[in-house]
Amino acid sequence: MAVETLQTDRLLIDGALVASASGRQTTLINPATGAPADVAPESDATDVGRAVAAAKAAFEDGRWSRVGPNARAAALYKLADLLEQHLGALAAMESRNVGKSIKLARDSDLPFSVDCLRFFAGAARALEGRAAAEYVPGYTSMVRRQPVGVVGQLCPWNYPLMMAIWKIGPALAAGNTVVLKPAKETPLTTLALGQLALEADLPPGVLNIVTSGEGVGAALVAHPDVRMISLTGASETGAIVVREAAGSLKRVHMELGGKAPFVVFADADLEAAAQGAIAGGFVNTGQDCTAATRIYVERVAYEAFLSRFVELAQQIRVGDPASEQTDMGPLVSAAQLGRVEALVRTARAQGHFALGGERAHIPGMENGYFFQPTIITDVPDDAAVVTQEIFGPVVVVLPFDREEEAIARANAVRYGLAGSVWTGNVQRALRVSAALEFGTVWVNDHLPLAAEMPHGGFKQSGFGKDMSLYALEDYTEIKHVMLDTTGARRKPWHYTIFGDAE
Q: Across residues 189-215, what is the average pLDDT?
């Protein structure tokens, strides 16, 4: 029977929608109002154990890993179709739960999620090893790529459903089974995904969804039957997960924080750069690991760029995320609002505010977690707003004089997720994009991604790739298979261990 109403009150464990073991629920706050809006089941370590056991059984009996890739592809295509059919409802749910504008959720996040899942459905049939060949006389060698096993996946709160798809897409396409945990603040669309997974006829235990609760993340990371952990989150959280996973030598896949530079040379189209900086800096209320939070502008163009950037930022419409006219909604939580305010307070003693720096007051939503688009100048390179990930609508704009200086300052952070260079000179674009120590570098734009291309970080922004065939490979083990082609009982080299040469 087709899904009519999306459920968000059940976990997905072993092919069934079930209550949490404790029966406890978490109250979810609407970021736009600061008031309770929804409830979700609260998991504990018992739920993790049930989910991992189901995933292990599904992997070991081969109901997913050993079926043909065409069958896995068919199920993932069906799930993508169901996401598309419910796109409007899922977008509204995501907008309400996260606080992001409805147009961002409906016209960007959700369509891209569907496209990514369809990419991985097709990629399931394209996974391959190297061609068979004779590297040693008398033997044929081949490489097999096989699934890792049970994969634990931890998702962030800024793009809940899209990040879930980025994770389950390659993991399931490769034949793994999954235990997925959304962030505690934003579980709704991931829970709805569980219901759609049943409708798509994913075999029991292949995809399991638990929620946050006391000890849940730690239990998933430490579980001896989980062979790989994938996390998207803060770099500090990544370091904890890596340490915990090291005890059982689990594989880890990390997409962590960012502090993206946005480097503008004087020969760039300054109007295009200013427009790009608005999109890049204030996307999702700045709650994006790739957000353009450090803008470096060649000094001769600095004042012109800054003037236009401030002018455009003043036009950003902050308000009710459900409104079609809203460009920027609230921050996700009171805690995140407090973090942004604390970093901004520190910056007041260090630099100049060209715009913003305060809470935004929205009529009828006075208790919402809104913050003004904020532009800061004249701060030193070691200021917290330059070196730390803020995850809010706060952008720093600073001048530079030489290409080498711009590269050095852009690279002078612990992060390495994404950055961009703006120039009309193709040689400079090639030089600077090669020199920037970031996993994704755009030229004359900032933010677009493609399912066919890898996305992941350098340095403390993590390791492993999301999207593309590289992500699919990350979720596989490489096995060398070597076959004797001679049929000889005693091989010519055996004498080196036993007996005499013949």
A: 97
> CA angle, corner 146, sides to 165 and 198, nearest 5?
40
In the numeric block, which tokens belong to residue 83?
């996401």
Q: Is 433 left (phi over 0), alpha (psi -120 to 50) or beta?
A: alpha
Concatenated DSSP letters for 362-419? -TT-TTS--B--EEEES--TTSHHHHS---SSEEEEEEESSHHHHHHHHH-SS--SEE
Task: Kindly report, residue by residue over 341-356, the tens digit of the pLDDT.
Answer: 999 999 999 999 999 9
Q: Which amino acid is at 156?
A: P
Query: Residue 153's closest CA among 245, 39, 89?
Result: 245
Which one is catalytic: 94, 155, 185, 289? 289
Q: Check if 255 is active-site.
A: yes
CATH of the domain at 58: 3.40.605.10
For residue range 92-126, what is the model confidence (pLDDT) as tens digits? 999 999 999 999 999 999 999 999 999 999 999 98
Identify which of 399, 421, 375, 444 has the alpha carbon closest to the alpha carbon of residue 263: 421
Q: Stretch 428-448: mean pLDDT, rounded?
A: 98
Confidence class for position 2, pLDDT limits 50, 70, 90: low
Distance CA 61, CA 15 (A): 15
Task: Give the per-residue pLDDT at 161.
Answer: 98
* Contact status, residue 467 vs residue 451, Cβ threshold 8 Å: yes
Residue 244 is part of which domain span?
11-22+36-256+457-481
Same domain membership, residue 309 and residue 212: no
Same domain, 42 and 128: yes
Q: Let me know if residue 493 belongs to a domain.
A: no
pLDDT tens digits, residue range 244-295?
Answer: 999 999 999 999 999 999 999 999 999 999 999 999 999 999 999 999 999 9
What is the C-alpha to C-alpha distance for residues 334 and 189, in angstroms, rounded to an integer? Answer: 21
- The answer to the question of residue 414 being in a domain is yes
Hey, is 172 helix, strand or coil?
Answer: helix
94 belongs to the catalytic site: no
Is beta strand 177-181 parallel, antiparallel or unpaired with respect to 150-154? parallel
CB 159 within 8 A of CB 109: yes
Specify whether 377 is located in the same domain as 279.
yes
pLDDT category of residue 336 using cuts at 50, 70 and 90? very high
Question: What DSSP string describes 414-452?
Answer: S--SEEEEE-S-HHHHHHHHHHS--SEEEES--S---TT
Q: Of residues 255, 389, 403, 437, which has the active-site annotation?
A: 255
